[in-house]
Amino acid sequence: MLKASTSRLAGPIWQIRYIHASLPYAAEVSSNASASSSSSSPSTSTTPAKWTPNSVRTGVIARKRGMTAMWDDFGAKFPVTILQLEECQVTANVETVRKDQSVYHAVQVASTNVAERKQSYAMLGHFKRAGVPAKRMVKEFPVTADAHVPVGTTLSAIHFVPGQDVDVIAKGIGKGFQGVMKRWNFSGQTKSHGNSLNHRGAGSTGQNQDPGRVWPGKKMAGRLGGKQITVQNLQVVRIDTKLDLIFVKGNVPGIDDAFVQVRDAKKTMAIGRHNWEKGQDEKVLPKNVVDIPFPAGTKELAAQYPPVISAKTRRINSPFAAGE
């Protein structure tokens, strides 16, 4: 399956392999698609074209474009966040042999074209070897051995299906140094009975002789925000393959135009895998989702379907999801 030129790190324990190769890839995946296979090297296995509950797909890098509102079938209004893919391409497939001889598989994805002068020479050589232009953001997503994607593949919003759940990872908005009331929701101190200019203070933070110190983890004033946050189980309600937009229900960390990582919801997939092992095949994927693109949703796949696919029209517009 893989005909790759590999480079390994010196040493017998750690072996890192970046695969820049053309993998056999099925562009169109439907609920009745059969697995395709081809000849492979001794160190790799055949990649099926059909998703299985044991498969872990790659994620994508998107930009948060803002929020809007949508209405459901009952007329209830709910908030959605719009995420957009910007030239999101696969730059490498990674195989790493760990100390316990298990193999770590990952797909490296890069997003947003930039001028070459804004990247280092090392990264420019990496992008040139992958056959893609210089990119601004590069991330690595762990996958299973059957979910490697050909290097240079351009990912599309059709990678996700309306109705499925996703996890969104992003850096939250930094709010600087804040007091305990804003940072930890302390109620503050009284405004009367002799309290002098200490209304928003933290109060007692420790004891004198026993234990004579402040316990680690004490809620005190400090930096608020600016850390990586993972919001789990957000539902995809609509995709726009023409503009590469993903509409997710709810809020997403970060400021507008911030880079976010979007992947299949780990908890939802774990529940589906558990149901599959018990023989409950109808509970493997979320409700009304019958299949998902595997190993990835590409630009070529998106060109075969209407530009907008939502939860209301997915029966006629997508082979991956059924109607209500």
UniProtKB/TrEMBL annotation:
Annotated Low complexity bias: 33-49
GO BP: any one term: translation
Any one GO molecular function term: structural constituent of ribosome
Entry keyword Ribonucleoprotein: yes
Gene3D superfamilies in the record: Translation factors (2.40.30.10)
The organism's place on the tree of life at top rank: Eukaryota
InterPro entries: Ribosomal_uL3, Ribosomal_uL3_bac/org-type, Transl_B-barrel_sf
Region (Disordered): 33-53, 188-218
Polar residues compositional bias, start-end: 188-198
GO CC terms of this entry: mitochondrial large ribosomal subunit
A Pfam family per the record: Ribosomal_L3
Keyword annotations from UniProtKB, A to Z: Ribonucleoprotein, Ribosomal protein
Family: Belongs to the universal ribosomal protein uL3 family.
Protein name: Large ribosomal subunit protein uL3m
Species in which this protein is naturally found: Sistotremastrum niveocremeum HHB9708
